[in-house]
Write a structure and sequence with these properties.
Blueprint lengths: L6 E3 L5 E3 L1 E4 L9 H13 L3 E3 L7 H13 L9 E6 L6 H15 L4 E6 L27 H13 L3 E7 L3 H8 L10 E5 L7 H9 L3 E5 L22 H10 L3 H11 L3 E4 L4 H7 L9 H8 L26
Parallel strand pairs: 3-4, 3-10, 4-5, 5-6, 6-7, 7-8, 8-9, 9-10
Antiparallel strand pairs: 1-2
Keywords: NADP, Oxidoreductase
InterPro entries: AKR, AKR1C, Aldo/ket_reductase_CS, NAD(P)_OxRdtase_dom_sf, NADP_OxRdtase_dom
Protein name: Prostaglandin-E(2) 9-reductase-like
């Protein structure tokens, strides 16, 4: 499967494969699974690997990538690797060191894309989510536009080929876009996006600014008990997706992924199962009619599986805005 032809051009001239392989896993999944799954992903044709410092699996994912380079399956330049700046490193003096920590874990010289994970700074330190003695999350006050300048420097220094953001609303994106002395626009905004939360307004806004929308949770997330309300509807059980899956002789997951591809959204798919990993890459083998695209548009009900409730009272909490 040659994914070269299924890429989207970024506003800095680089290309991002339209289908990406997600590496986040719930705590109960052993980290070695991330390594095994990434190897399978590369073997079946995935070239876009999405990870993050906060996923706590960059050593394993880096090992998988390097082993596939070593055995001749791919060259480094064939792989598009994304990492993310965690919120405890948003202070400008910490941001570059965070990227260097990721590169050291990966044992790679550069990442292809580096994102600010959330616009909400937390207190720096060892803890991923720092809390006070009452169990209250400790916020930090950082101007993410100053953090952005450090990412621009990381791009200039060759540590990251492209830079972007994740979980930003349109107003927060505008703050960066309108920043005096802006050198590089964000190439993308990676957000939760699926038929129950289709982000059509944010997508239109991003398109108008030549920013690519990248969809995570495109299959309704892995329903990690720590973050996802277990009473929320299961996306892939939706009868409309089920009917379309029958019509096209595909799985509901492939219908949900194909929907994003046809909207010009770069989509991430996550699985630890070889059968599903092989299936997900078949998203380019069929096409939905414009009528069926409209039917899927009609499923939108603003269900956000990952509201990041630990950040909800942060002044920069992104999801109180409509888009």
């Amino acid at each position: 499967m040659d994914l070269k032809h299924h890429s989207v051009k970024l506003n800095d001239g680089h290309f991002i494969p339209a289908l990406g392989f997600g590496t986040y896993s719930p705590a109960e999944v052993p980290k070695r699974k991330a390594e095994e799954a990434t190897k399978i992903g590369i073997d079946v044709g995935f070239r876009h690997i999405d990870s993050a410092y906060a996923y706590n699996c960059e050593e394993e994912v880096g090992r998988a990538i390097r082993s596939k380079i070593a055995d001749g399956t791919v060259k480094r330049e064939d792989i598009f690797y994304t990492s993310k700046l965690w919120v405890t490193f948003l202070r400008p003096e910490l941001a570059q060191s965070a990227l260097e920590i990721s590169l050291k874990k990966l044992q790679l010289d550069y990442v292809d894309l580096y994102l600010i994970h959330y616009p909400t700074a937390l207190k720096p330190g060892e803890e991923m989510i720092p809390e006070d003695e009452h169990g209250k999350v400790i916020f930090d006050t950082v101007d993410f536009c100053a953090t952005w300048e450090v990412l621009e420097k990381c791009k200039d220094d060759g540590l990251a080929k492209s830079i972007g953001v994740s979980n930003f609303n349109h107003k927060q994106l505008e703050m960066i876009l309108n920043k005096p002395g802006l050198k590089y626009k964000p190439v993308c905004n990676q957000v939760e996006c699926h038929p129950y939360l289709n982000q059509s307004k944010l997508l239109d806004f991003c398109k108008s600014k030549d920013i690519v929308l990248i969809a995570y949770g495109a299959l309704g997330t892995q329903r990690d008990k720590r973050w996802v309300d277990q009473s929320s509807p299961v996306l892939l059980n939706d009868p409309v997706l089920g009917a379309l899956a029958k019509k096209y002789n595909q799985s509901p997951a492939l219908i949900a992924l194909r929907y994003q591809i046809q909207r010009g959204v770069v989509v991430l798919a996550m699985s630890f199962t070889e059968r599903e990993i092989k299936e997900n890459i078949q998203v380019f083998d069929f096409q939905l009619t414009s009528e069926d695209m409209k039917v899927i548009d009609g499923l939108n009900r603003n269900v956000r599986y990952l509201p990041a409730s630990f950040l909800v009272s942060h002044p920069n909490y992104p999801f109180s805005e409509e888009y």
